[in-house]
Amino acid sequence: MKKKMFCTLLVFCIMLGNIGIVFATDTTNAEQENIIRSDEAALLGLNKTAFSGIMEADNGSFYRQVAGNFILQECQAIPFASSSAVDAILGDEELPLEIRESIQRRYENACSLGQENEVTVTIFSDAPKATRAAGDTTYVTVNGYDCKNYQVQFTNLSSGYQDVKTGTSAATWAEQITNVALSFDSDSDHLAVAMLGWASTAKTVLDVFLALSPMTYVNGSTEDFIQFSMTYNCTDQYTYVWSTFYNDWSLGLFSQSVTMTKANLLQYYYNPATRTGDEQIISLIGSGLNRSYKSPDFDDPYETAIAFRNVGAYDWVTASWGNMILSFTG
Predict the structure, then answer these.
(1) Is 60 left (phi over 0), alpha (psi -120 to 50) or beta?
(2) ∠ CA 90-92-94, rounded to 5°
(3) Do 248 and 148 touch, CB atoms closer than 8 A?
(4) Other C-beta atoms lying within 10 Å of the C-beta of residue 268
(5) How buried is residue 11: exposed, middle or buried, by Cβ count under 10 Å (0-12/13-18/19+)?
(6) What are the beta bridge partners of residue 140?
(7) DSSP per residue, 98-146
(8) Has this prediction a pTM greater than 0.90?
(9) DSSP assignment of 61-95
């Protein structure tokens, strides 16, 4: 239902025509002091960071690159290991509610997995530009619309182990699978298939297990299961547009970027005859690791956000393999 809604709204977007991204930098609009044009960027000494689309200047300032321009960012980092820091950000009512709720979900999930010491959330937000006559702060002006953007970047999140196949058919399935084909999709597009494998010479998933396990054969049991887990970095991007309809900031587009940094495959098979079972975990390798899988409008969200400023468009990323579907919204 969610995909159908997005597609229906997309028709509305297309009917509006191609808006085109034009940042306000001429004499008819106040110069945007928080935006550096591409021809000026070299003076800043910008360098890539570990954060998606974020550059760091020689003076320690952060900039987000959009359509050849560089937008000055405010930055705050919150380690999940510090419960007081988490409580402080969750209590910050200047931060939009949906962002605080997302942080809370990720924090609670990390705590349930015992991994809160591994995760940090870093919030990048567009730096204020000026003040309107009404007293509201403006940030970025695109095609005459006031916009502001938040990138909420989580590092070292874990999916936990998720079922791929269970029961008597798990071994039969594993005997036919020669690699992990993890399909990444957004709500509006297919992104890529991440191909993962293993370092050993074993040919199939079941061969990997038998090469490591003291068990010499697998019969197939209702107790059997195959699970997958991944460690990943995830950026939730919230692009807001000032809505004259609501007379308030309205979320125009939610988009995501996900980078898988580690992946493991767990297999467990049970032998009813001996009443024993064995579990083996292998680390997966391949070109699908350390690659970003992004919503189509993630790198340049304004056109879509403006078109959907009164209704909101949500384009998050999922990954699937076998019976498993992973969502990265916490």
Answers:
(1) left
(2) 130
(3) no
(4) 19
(5) exposed
(6) 147
(7) HHHHHHHHHHHHHHHTT-GGG-EEEEEEEPP-EE-TTS-EE-EEETTEE
(8) no
(9) -EEEEETTEEEEEEEEEEETT-HHHHHHHHT-TTS
Please tell me the distance from the alpha carbon of residue 146 to that of residue 249, in angstroms, as a whole number: 9
Candidates 200, 193, 205, 199; CA nearest to 164 is 205
> Smallest Cα–Cα separation from 151: which of 76, 86, 59?
76
Nearby residues of 135 by Cβ (< 8 Å), 6 or more positions away: none
Cross-strand bridge partners of residue 330: none
Q: Mind listing the pLDDT tens digit for each residue in 194-208?
A: 999 999 888 999 999
Q: Give the whole-angstrom CA distance, residue 23 versus residue 86.
A: 35
- Residue 35 has a pLDDT of 64
b/e sequence 180-213, b meaning 16+ C-beta within 10 Å:
bebebbbbbeebeebebbbeeebeebbbbbbebb
DSSP state, residue 292? E
Distances in Å between the Cα of 90 and the Cα atoms of 75, 97, 248, 324 are 16, 9, 21, 31
CA distance linking residue 315 with residue 210, whole number of Å: 41
Identity of the residue numbered 1 = M
Give pLDDT tens digits for 85-111. Answer: 999 999 999 999 999 999 999 999 999
CA-CA distances (angstroms) from residue 41 to 35, 63, 73, 131, 147?
A: 10, 10, 14, 25, 22
d(Cα 172, Cα 192) in Å, to the nearest integer? 27
Write the single-letter amino acid at 308: F
Reading the block at residue 248, the tokens are 């308030």
Cβ atoms of 228 and 180 within 8 Å: the answer is: yes
Q: Which two tokens stand for residue 119?
A: 């995760």
